[in-house]
Design goal:
Elements (H helix, E strand, L loop, with lengths): L5 E9 L2 E7 L9 H8 L9 E7 L15 E7 L9 H13 L7 E6 L2 E7 L5 E7 L10 E4 L2 E4 L1 E4 L3 E6 L14 E3 L9 E9 L2 E8 L3 E3 L3 H12 L10 E7 L2 E7 L4 E6 L2 E9 L3
Parallel strand pairs: 2-3, 11-13, 14-16
Antiparallel strand pairs: 1-2, 1-19, 3-4, 5-6, 6-7, 7-18, 8-9, 8-12, 10-11, 13-14, 14-15, 16-17, 17-18
């Protein structure tokens, strides 16, 4: 694929988790890791937690089987250029872009991601709901632990499908500065890295969290992390009662809601906003 230096972009965010959206419907743009890092640099580029490339699914050879169901593929890259399976806030922003530009006209849209097909709904209040699929746990014999400075806590491993280590603490300040990644052990529980969520109770079915995302750092919000937190919080006292369960999850950038259905699907609902558009001159 040819590398094009001048490309259009749109900037958007979901509860403060911000993204640069690059439309590349025909899949002609070969973004390098270096270019993604430059775009996401808050001093030398536009600044973002990640890049969302909008591509027609039939232009993605590894995912072409999804094309009959999902016209568009969300090619998500972390701020350091690495690939991620899924991004809940990014998916909402992605769908907001498809709707705002007329690429989709229905309120119910299926998109393709590296984490599989995702059903989405644009709600009457303009929030967007993403079916994140079922949460699972890592296949590891040892339970993970998280360490910050001289303090350690047992963690709950959750895959949504991004890997998460969820820690319940007394105060969100216990997470420290989060300028660096917390230590997670043993390393083989999350061989591809892990997002770490620090969580406090706020009331019945209500929690607040901070998160350090792999390949990014601390962010104002994490959609898959909110799902992991709701899943873990529901199981703190043992096996949950049957039926739907909805949790309010406060993040530094706002609030999202997560519903775990009786069938086990994790439904993430929250806002998504587009804030700017322009043209970016990619290096290289």
């Amino acid at each position: 694929m040819a590398r094009l230096n001048e490309v259009p972009f749109v900037k958007g965010h979901g509860t403060g988790n911000d993204f640069v959206i690059i439309p590349d419907l025909e899949g002609r743009l070969d973004l390098t890791d270096e270019q993604v890092r430059w775009v996401c640099d808050r001093h030398r580029g536009i600044g973002a937690n990640g890049v969302l490339r909008v591509v027609r699914t039939d232009r993605m050879p590894d995912f072409v089987d999804f094309a009959p169901v999902a016209e568009f593929f969300m090619d998500y890259r972390n701020a350091d250029g690495s690939l991620a399976e899924m991004c809940g806030n990014g998916a909402r922003v992605f769908v907001r872009y498809l709707d705002a530009t007329g690429l989709v006209t229905d309120n119910d849209v299926v998109i393709a991601t590296r984490g599989g097909l995702r059903s989405t709904t644009i709600n009457a209040d303009r929030t967007i709901t993403i079916d994140m699929g079922q949460a699972t746990t890592p296949r590891a014999r040892a339970l993970p632990s998280v360490t910050v400075d001289d303090r350690s806590w047992p963690a709950t491993g959750v895959l949504v499908p991004n890997p998460h280590a969820v820690v319940f603490v007394d105060d969100l300040s216990d997470a420290g500065s989060l300028l660096g990644a917390p230590d997670v052990a043993p390393a083989d529980v999350f061989p591809d890295g892990v997002n770490v969520e620090f969580v406090v109770d706020r009331g019945p079915n209500h929690v607040a969290m901070r998160v350090h995302e792999r390949g990014v750092g601390e962010t104002l919000s994490c959609g898959t992390g909110a799902c992991a937190v709701a899943w873990a919080a529901r199981r703190r006292e043992g096996e949950p009662t049957p039926g739907d369960s909805t949790w309010q999850v406060d993040v530094p950038g706002g609030t999202v809601h997560v519903t775990e259905t009786a069938a086990g699907a994790m439904l993430l609902t929250g806002p998504a906003d587009l804030v700017a558009r322009g043209t970016i001159l990619l290096p290289g």
